[in-house]
Every structure is written in C-alpha cells, then in structure tokens.
Amino acid sequence: MMTNNKLLIGTNLKMYKNIRETVSYLTDLQEVTADLCDDLLLFVIPSYTALPASSAAVDQARIRLGAQNMNWEENGQFTGEISPLMLQELDLKIVEIGHSERRHTFRETDIEENRKVVSAINHGFIALLCVGETGDEKELGVGDERLRQQLKIGLHGLNEADCKSLWVAYEPVWAIGVNGVPASSGYADAKHRVIREALLQIFPHEGHNVPILYGGSVNSGNACELISQPAIDGLFIGRSAWVASEFNALIREVLPVWQHKVHETSNREKRTL
Ligand code: PGA
Fold first, then answer.
1. In ligand 1, which atom is closest to the CA atom of 240?
2. Which of 147, 180, 250, 270 has a CB 3.0–4.6 Å from the CB of 217, allowing a cystine?
C-alpha cells in the first residue's frame, strides 16, 4: 500500500561536513534539483553546528532540514545535550532519532529513543525513528522480533494523530557504513512489511500513513531496485548522497521508478474497486 504521495529521499551527513562544506553542499543540491517536481520530498540532516547557516542557505519548501539527535528534556543539568527548545529556534522540520550509531556506539536504549520520539513530536517536529537488527540478531533469526520491539517501545505513548509526524527508517545495522553490505531488495521489502504490520498493530487507523524508508549502503547500483519494491516508500542515504551532483543523479534515476510504481499501484487499486 502506498503511504504518501511523495518520494521521501534524504541524507544524514553524520560528522563529516563543517559549516562551509555543508552550506556549499546544500546550495549546490538546491540548484541542481531546482527543476524536480512536487513528487519529491528531499531532506538533509547536517551536524548541529551547521544548522543555523543551513537554514539560512536553503528554502525548506525545497530541502527540509533536520537534526541528528535531540535530548527529550527542555532544559536541565545535561552537559553536552541539545534540547527541543534549542532546536525550535533553528526552524527545523525533522529530528532523527535512534540512528544505529546512536544506539550502538553511544549505547542509547529503546526507552531513551521513545522519550526522544515523544518529545520531538510534542515540540512540533517530524520524528524520524531509525530501527534495524544487528548482524547477530539476523543470524539468530530474531530480527523481526527486534524490529517489533524497537517500534513498540520506541512509539509507546503516541496516539493515532501523532502518525502524521512520524517517519520510520529501516536501517539494518550490518548494512550501514563503510563495512556495510547492502540488504537485497527482497530482504528489505520483507522487513518493511514486518514494520508495516507492527505499525498497524500499534496504530490500526493511521499506521498505513507512516512512511517507511530504507537505509544502509544505498548507492546508484541498487537504489532503483530498492525503490521499486512495494513496501519501500523512500530512501535514507549516507555516503552516496554526500556529493550534490552524485545525489542529484541518483534522485533522477530513482524518481521515475517510484512514479511508475505509484501509477501501477493506483491502477491496480482502481481495478479492484
Ligand atoms: P550509508 O549510511 O548509506 O553510508 O551506509 C546510511 C546511514 O547511516 O543512514
């Protein structure tokens, strides 16, 4: 089932670009993608220090901006943390929560991700919750359980109306980064279905409207195959998106494949009415 009428495609810049590099990247990306149509929802998630300059540099009707993390409290004795009130000063749309590097390098727990998701939505942001099984969990055959657990805990306390402020990214831990092996499109599609079922269990009415993006070693060789899968609503890309011209080329390959899928799906739905 198609869950939204736009292709969601975006990148997390992790801890790579400084302020100057981020602004130059965003300016280039905005320029080269200027003619792309309303079917695209493009987003970029820079480092905290580059956010004020980023929001001055881009038109967020064209490129939405997000933060890579957020503390759930509004203020307090939390040295080194950034609060939702601080992010509200920056005109951001999205807060990324629970990226695999936050969960595994910085040992964040499902319960902490849940506090962040609830706080981000309550403060008017889109919460982009990342979930994914580790290589060990995959080998042990508990990947699906792990995804359900991350979703049930991560989304605890939200209501149906909050679904409009929620995106989920499926990012298998073993597929991310320089040592990552991309998931096959069939495997990714199957896990997106597991995620959709879990979302519908939690939110029986609105769960079908939450977009589910795939991330983990997406590149120009696999992006079209991934986006053509019925259960994949968008792509969340790292390394392959960090040069504006290359990201632009990838988007231009993916967009018609996505448009074809949407068209076919709506024809099929019309035929079954
Ligand atoms: P990658 O990163 O595309 O470089 O594997 C994906 C991610 O961390 O979201």
1. 3
2. 180
